[in-house]
Amino acid sequence: MSSSKTSWLLGTLLISILCFVSWKHSIIDVRGAFLLVGRGLLLLGLSTLMVSYFYPRLRSLFTSNTRSTSEYSEDEEAKQRQKQAREELQEKHSEKAFSYQESVLRPRQESSMRKKEERFYRMTGETWKLTDGEQLGEGESLGQSAHEDVDGTPNQEAVRRRKLPESATRLHPKPEVPPPKRVVVLPEEPAEDAEGVVRVALRCPSGRTIHRRFLKSDSSSVLLDWLLKTGYHPAVYTLCTTYPRQPLVIGKDISMGDAGLTTNVLWQAALTSCGTSCRRSRARM
User: Fold this and answer.
1) For residue 105, what are the contacts with CB-CB under 8 A and spacing of at least 6?
2) pLDDT at 152
3) Residue 238 DSSP symbol
4) In the prediction, which pLDDT does 22 show?
5) Residues paired with 219 in a beta bridge
6) Mean pLDDT per segment of 10 residues, for the chain of length 285 residues?
7) pTM above 0.70, yes or no
8) How far is CA 271 from CA 207, 232, 256, 280, in A?
């Protein structure tokens, strides 16, 4: 600011000296000299006004051009840095996605496909496809076969390799024929007034009581058939006496009369599992 003031003062002084010298060597009078000085000052003021008005605008114009150029270059650099950062981030995401697919998604898909394949082969009955299989000619190692086939022809080697294992050529035994199923047939129930009638009342574990008439000449094993027919297997349940608590003597060669079942006695047998006592009550008819 001080330098500009100094320059203006020096300029004014030089112009004044120039005007004085011009007036001294000129033929103009004092009035003409003052007019000349006034015109010079007016010209100086106009030039100063024009410089003060146009100089800031010209300066701002040039500085704005240089500033816009620098800002444009800075924006380009920022865009380049952003683009590079985005590319690096995208590469990192791509690597993470690839590693996740290889370590997680692919094993899951392979496991799911194996399970579906195993389920399909089990449903179609082709479970042998799930095994690795075995080479024909079991019991022979590759070294032994190679050693044995040194002097053999290719045909002989192929015949040896086509040798089936003993498990495939062994004759399987015929399956045993199951014994015929025994059909329980009870004798016909005699009439109440028939001779030698034995009336038996069977109390089941469920609480119900079943009555049936037999002949004392019938085999006592019929009682076990009746027990089985009722729904209680003799291997699990048995008929017992009251006191002493013993199983009822039953056999094919023992009739009901020999087992103690008489015509004038009503037997009420309680059904129980093996190892548990039964009850029998006697009542006069």
Assistant:
1) none
2) 62
3) E
4) 65
5) 255
6) 66 71 63 74 82 80 65 82 92 92 91 90 81 58 49 72 69 78 80 79 75 79 80 74 66 75 52 40 32
7) no
8) 10, 9, 18, 10
Q: How many other CB atoms are there within 10 angstroms of residue 225's CB atom?
A: 16
Please name the residue that has the structure tokens 């791509």.
94
Structure tokens at 179: 């014994």
Cα–Cα distance for residue pair 10/18, rounded to 1 Å: 12
The owner of tokens 């548990």 is 276
For residues 90 and 129, give the distance between their C-alpha atoms in angstroms, rounded to a whole number.
44
Residue type at 109?
Answer: Q
Residue pair 127/121 in contact by the 8 Å Cβ criterion? yes
Angle at 180 between CA 174 and CA 185, to 5 degrees: 180
The DSSP secondary-structure symbol of 129 reads G
Give the separation between CA 186 and CA 214, rounded to whole angstroms: 10
Judge whether 265 and 196 are in contact, CB under 8 Å: no
Residue 212 near residue 187 (C-beta atoms within 8 A): no
Residue with tokens 């599992």: 273
Q: Enter the tokens of residue 143.
A: 């070294």
Structure tokens at 264: 């004038």
Rounded-to-10 torsion of CA 29, 31, 34, 36 = -70
* Main-chain phi, psi angles of 208, to 5 degrees: -80, 160
Q: Say how many CA atoms lie within 13 Å of 261 toward its Cβ.
A: 32
